[in-house]
């Protein structure tokens, strides 16, 4: 069965052991990569675009409530 966490206990222990081999003067060099993403979707009932195209789909019912006065 696949672990549901980011990593299992054994893998974490192997990572700690690998870092210990790099210890110099009581310090362990390490770098981190931070990846961030942000996205918004259209409000409920609004058209959604088709990936890779300029086609939008919507129902006729959604048009009935959006008439200009």
UniProtKB/TrEMBL annotation:
It comes from the Bacteria. This is Biotin biosynthesis protein BioC. It comes from Rhodanobacter spathiphylli B39. Residues 43-69 are annotated as: Disordered.
